[in-house]
Amino acid sequence: HRDGHRLILEVEDDGVGLTKKAESTEGVGLTNTRERLRASFGNDGTLLLEESDGGGTIARIETPFRPITGSHS
User: Which of 1, 42, 46, 64 has a CA that sits 20 to 30 A from residue 35's CA?
Assistant: First the structure.
């Protein structure tokens, strides 16, 4: 969804949630995603992981909202 000038993408699961080990280490996929966000948006793109209230994990990516301009076929 869009929140003002920010684009927000959230993915939530209902699994076991974050473990202490998962919080202290980051795999290749998360590292690559953070690097791509940094390359595309500098400090304006973020990836956050947090525990969901009902159990599980929420992954949240925020970037600046950039409207598409011009014609696209």
Answer: 1
42 falls in which pLDDT band (50, 70, 90)? Answer: very high
DSSP three-state, residue 64:
strand
Is the pTM higher than 0.85? Answer: no
Q: Report d(CA 46, CA 40) in Å as an integer.
A: 11
In the chain, the N- to C-terminal Cα span, in Å, equals: 24
Strand partners, 8: 62
Q: Tokens 């500098």, residue?
A: 42
Distance from CA of residue 47 to its chain's centroid?
Answer: 4
> What is the average pLDDT score of the chain?
87
**What b/e string do you get for 38-66 counting C-beta neighbours within 10 Å, with b at 16 or more?**
eeeeeeebebeeeeeeeeebbeebbbeee
